Every structure is written in C-alpha cells, then in structure tokens.
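ugh ok fine here u go
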Amino acid sequence: MTQLGPGMYSQSQGPCDDCRGKGEVIDDANKCQTCKGKKVTKEKKVLEAMIDKGAPNNNQYTFHGEADEYPGMEPGDVVIVVQEQPHKKFKRKGADLLFEHKITLVEALTGVNFVFKHLDGTPIRVKNEPGEVIKPDDLKTLPEKGLPFYKQPFKFGNLFITFKVVFPDSMPVAHLPALKKALPAPQKGDDDDDMAAETVLLQPFDEAQRNTKAAGGTRDESDEEEEEGGGHPGGGQRVQCAQQ
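structure:
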C-alpha cells in the first residue's frame, strides 16, 4: 500500500522482497558461497563440433541439454549453424566447384599448362590435349576434383574452369606471314574478289563518333538553338505582355 494523499492509497502487487517470488528464504549462514543462494553459477564449457566433409551451408549440429540450466527446469539445446564463407578463387554449387582462369592467345591456340592449389593446398597441374584450341568463355571439366559429397566422403563432385582469353593489343608485322601460314585461311565471301571495291581501314571506336540523329551528330540543330536561345526556339528571350 502506498499513500498518495489524505485518504488516498494505491495498491500494487509484486514479488516478495525477501524471497523474490520463490516461496523460500535461505539464511545467509546456509547460503552457498559460490552461487550466493541463486542456485546457479556461470561457467565456460568447450563444445567440439566435428563438421562433416562437404557439409552444406546452414547445416546444423545440435548439442542436447547443453544450454542454460536451472533447478526444476529441463536444460535447452545448443545449436551450431555452419556459415559458409566466400572464397576468393572458387565458387561452390553443391559438391561442384568453379573458378575462372585467364590465358593468353598463344595458350589458347597451342595448349595450356598451369598449376593451381586446391582448397586443401594440393597442387594440381592442368593441361589439354595437343592441338585442341580453347575458345573464349570455354567451360572445361576436371572430373571428381570438386568437394566430397555430404555423408559420402569417398565420392567427389566436379571442378569446372571457365577460360578467359586475353588478346594482344597488336602483333608485329613481321610475324603475320608465319601466323597466316600456321592458322587456317579465312573464308572468303562472294564479293571478296571485287577489284573495284573501296578500301577503308578500321579505327578505334570513340563515343564522339556516334550519329544518332537523322541530321547528323548526337543532337538535332533545334536542340542547339534551344540552348543558345535560352530554351526557346529561334533564340532570344520570350517577350512578356505589358500590363495596363
């Protein structure tokens, strides 16, 4: 009971200050010196979770009865959730792996021969069949070089490699006859033998070369006139009607 004023009282209910709603009071002389009568103590415990090979992302491992305990209550469980971190080289899709590898034009034409380290640090040398040409964005497979299957650690997925061919900016003119001799001849069209055809040279692309308007350039002449005339066709400023 709390007196608010003359003849006015407020009544509220709450846990007992002595037992704090527990229904019993322990004498200070009989209290446990470790928990101070709270019946529980804090302690650290190490739980070891053996992550299975090939475990999927968000896979859970449950430790029954290892959560907080309290007298008269059943302890809960500790659940460990596996969070897969992205790798700077490999991308995972189930038990398969994928990574991108850049090669030169010479390697694309004559063959690749390079070494990469797998996730466990094992070096793997990659080669292709002699005479095989690798085209840009070609997807090749290394069978059974992926991750182990979940719950089947003796079976493995595949590893896929996407090849990006880096072309040179230019070629020495002296080497061009040898290249033409080594590479297949280009296919000629029906009009390639026309001696009267005009010869033009390719140039690097420049954004300023675009002519998207019918009158030429990227804007019509009317657009320029509007800018010069303050936004009104014909130039000059718009004349306001005089007030009488």
